[in-house]
Design goal:
With about 220 residues, this protein is mainly α. The relative contact order is 0.07.
Length: about 220
Amino acid sequence: MARSIRVDAVLIQAVIAGALSFAHLHDLAAAAGQSGWKAWAYPISVDLLLVAVWRRLRTDGPSRLAWCWFLVALVASLGANIATAGLLNLDHVPAWLRILVAGWPALAFLGGTLLAHTTTPPADQAPVPPAPPAPAVEEDPVPAPALEAETVPELPAADPAPAPAPAVPVPAALVDHARKVAADHEARTGARIDTDTLRARLGVPPHLADAIAAQLA
C-alpha cells in the first residue's frame, strides 16, 4: 500500500531559503579570493555554527554566549545575502571584506568550541539551615493532688455549633478564567472585583462564585 506524502509548505520554504543563502555565501567567498572547494566550505561553516547555537539554546536554555554567537552567524549569513544583491561590486571586493572572509574559519572554530565545551553555571542557591529541634517537654512525675468533690450546679447544654458547609469543588480552568476576568476588571477600574460582579461576568451560581472569590483572595 503506497504511503501518502504530505507536502509541508514550511519545509519547502526552508529548503529554498537554505539553498539561496548557501549560494550567496559561496559567491561572496569566491569573490573574496576563496576559490575551489574553499568557497563551498564557507556556507557549510556558517550553517554548522547556526545549528550548534540552536542546539545549545534548546538543551541549556538562553544564555549570553549562545545569543552572541547566534548574532555572529546571523550577520555572516544575512550580510552575504545583502552583499550579493547588487550593493557590492563582486569584481572589486574591498580589502576589509577579504580580511573578514579569510578570518571566518578561525572565528567559527572558536565559537563552536566555546558552545561545545562551556557549560552554563547553575544559579547560586543559598543552603537552607535545618530547623532547630523542638525542646522536649518534661512531664512532672509528681501527680497533681486530687481535688475534693464539690457540688457543681448543672448548666444547660449549649446548642452544638453548626457544621461547616462542604467545600464547593471548582475546576482549575474556571479559576484561571476568573483570574483573567479579575485582572481585566482591576486594570480597567483600578479596584478589585467583587463577588456579585464576578458572578455576573462568569454566569455561575452564587455558591460557586463565593468559592471562586475565596480562591482569588
